[in-house]
């Protein structure tokens, strides 16, 4: 029997993931990286993401395979009563539910919070939506660019021409990470609560609401506070928005790009010496935006190729790096030395990007390819654990939950009532 991977902290935790949003898929991937057993339920026709992007010879997209690595995919037709019953059986055995449906969908399918609480009082249910479960936008469609626009994530990004969509989608991945953090926190709280529910193996569950827009909004807290005080950051005008010569992306002679992050004094001195312009060291204090200095640096960078500049700054530590293409990134010496990216046997086997979470100097577990399985097969392997007493009172949703807006995108509610803890 092999040694358990160092990052397998969630071994034995069962996760059911339903919905098609990338945020939920990334949350599930993160939990799988930590050792959880993740079962993703899809409609019989499959997830549209499987047919989006670069397709492999088997007719499934490369991106879909990467996002669902390590998961078991099962087909459930939620229009059929028999498959809704199978989902109930999965949730009876699960510890975590990641749900990315719009508000109201789970209720229409018969899985409202009261039903889930009675079914499995220890379940940690993450409702992961674009706009949140309340408010005028709650039922609206959304993509990352719209969420980023409303949450303030696009206002000062991009070039002088205007904002640009982020890739990969920022709000999806950020909310997915937030969801995984919330799940781990709720699991820890539940572990501490076991003694309060008669020593059962599972303690109290939770209902956790996370929205992509509030995740983005939380990241904007410093900028929003500056704007509130009458000094909003502006695109191409401020320290980190394109106004500083030492924080730019410059074009090289061969139409590649060099990223310069020489913000502090030591780095700026090293950078100026690297481009053979020591007389520009004193210009670091020029007022923002430093348009003349930016133009001067740009002219110098355009004189040489990216390979030339790479050779120069390999020997100078000042936060300067070529903008590597996605084809080049896996071959970078630093990433290769750390084993951050591993290639398959051929092009269609793809690459495996290692989990960024490294515990105790160990090696993260390999991400096995996703597998498809019958629901009944999963159920036969998942026994029904001991549970805390089923809650028979009013569901948390029926209790007063009005509160002042919070900066955090997480809204924890115990299944035994808001604020009930261990």
The CATH class of the largest domain, by name, is: Alpha Beta
Q: Report the CATH superfamily of the largest domain.
A: Crotonobetainyl-coa:carnitine coa-transferase, domain 1
Q: Report the end-to-end length measured between terminal Cα atoms.
A: 36 Å
- Under the CATH scheme, the architecture of the largest domain is 3-Layer(aba) Sandwich
**Could you describe the largest sheet, including whether it forms a barrel?**
8 strands, mixed
Strand order of the largest sheet: 12-3-2-1-4-5-6-13
Structural class: alpha/beta
Q: Helicity range of the residues?
A: 25-40%
What is the CATH T-level topology of the largest domain? Rossmann fold
Envelope shape: elongated
Summarize the helix and strand pattern as letters.
Answer: EHEHEHEHHEHHEHHEEHHHEHEEEHE
Q: Return Rg in Å.
A: 25 Å
List how many beta strands DSSP finds. 13
Your description of this structure?
The protein has 14 helices and 13 strands. It has helices at 22-33, 62-67, 81-93, 105-108, 113-119, 144-151, 170-193, 212-219, 221-228, 265-274, 291-301, 306-313, 333-338, 375-381, and strands at 14-18, 37-42, 72-75, 96-99, 124-129, 206-211, 247-251, 257-261, 320-322, 341-343, 351-353, 371-372, 410-414. Residues 388-422 have low confidence and may be disordered.
